Amino acid sequence: MRLRAAKTLSGSGGGRELEPAPDAGLAGLAKVTFKQSAMEIYLDYNAGAPLRPEAREALAEFLAAEEGNPASVHRSGQRARRALERARAQVAALIDAAARRLVFTSGGTEANNLAIFGAVRTQNGRRKIISSLIEHSSILGPLRALAQAGFLVRRLAPDDKGRISAEQVLAELDDNTALVTLGLANSETGAIQDLAPLAQPVRQAGALLHIDAAQAAGRMGLSASRLNCDFMSLSGHKLGALAGVGALYARDERRVSPLMFGGPQERGVRPGTPNVLGAVSMGAAAETVSSRLSHEINLMSVLTERLRSRLCASIPGLALNGPLFGRIPNTLNLTFPAARGESLLIALDLEGVRVSMGSACAAGAVEPSHVLMAMGRSESEARSSLRLSLGPQLALEEIERAAVIFARVWQRVAEVEAAEGEARG
Fold this sequence. Notes:
Blueprint: E1 3-5, E2 18-20, E3 41-42, H1 53-64, H2 75-94, E4 102-105, H3 108-120, E5 128-132, H4 137-148, E6 152-156, H5 166-172, E7 177-183, H6 199-204, E8 208-212, H7 224-227, E9 231-235, E10 246-250, H8 276-314, E11 319-320, E12 331-335, H9 341-350, E13 353-354, H10 370-374, H11 379-383, E14 385-389, H12 396-424
Parallel strand pairs: 3-13, 5-6, 5-7, 7-8, 8-9
Antiparallel strand pairs: 1-2, 4-10, 9-10, 11-12, 12-14
Helix pairs in contact: 1-8, 2-8, 3-4, 8-12, 9-12
């Protein structure tokens, strides 16, 4: 179904209507109209969380002081250095790690690349990497590059709930394994992987363990020491910091070779003038998350389950992709019967509800979700699925309103697409 936005209605306060395109066949018979909501309901926190007020305040305070380059020896530079190190300690505390083990990066993607490429370069000729089919593109991309360079890359298949078992990983582990790299919480389904049992056998085999915790941070308790991993990647804007900042925990920085050269910053692991503004915002967001974690987890659990139950009651045949239990508390991946996800996304957006069809880093892709396909969903099911990811700033009233909008939009889109199917039939 092709849709277009109609012209703004006079006196509508900027509202728009979604009309069938001229070549939409019998779509016009359904007389489908989606009015743009005056109030936005943001359900795409896994793509990026709004800037937290505490991060905004920390940024304003830092900017007001007009601090200098943290590498400079004068007072302005040293004040910037203190702000950077305070932020490092705040982020490290979120994952129960020593601040000196944390390296700031430009985001989760760079952190993953640094961990993967940096680790294999220190592994003395080992040429095997173990991962899975359901990882974020910032892991899959480096693995493709390494496979093209001659590395043996084992991509494990999940079960139908999106879970990778420790037994699968251990069955592949051998003395040629350089790295095991896995996401702790899947960005599309929210499924949590049980990675703690891997650390000891991976280390005994002489390999390194990298955990991508970008989606897990702020949505479950994290401890780098309990997971006993060698590397852990974090993303600032998933926590409510500015976009463009992230961090890599490295248990032993001698086991990660830098990707760039030319400066002593971040102990030489990630040279270049650091993004102090980004780090300050990430530190403030991390500290806020740490202090409110239990409350926010409980709140997101209640709101997410309320939305799921309301949608299941109003949309017959709605299916959850991923486990009912054992997923981060803010994420729902749902297959909507008889309606394409793209059509639903457009219609929902015009009603003020912001969702996605999967990872934001793959949003421009034409192909259906690689995660859902790896879980055994059909191409049609994958194309009819949406990811709903909630945050602690949402209120129950917004969830109730979103549920009503979802049901209304789904019914109208399904009717249009059924009419189009009859016309083609």
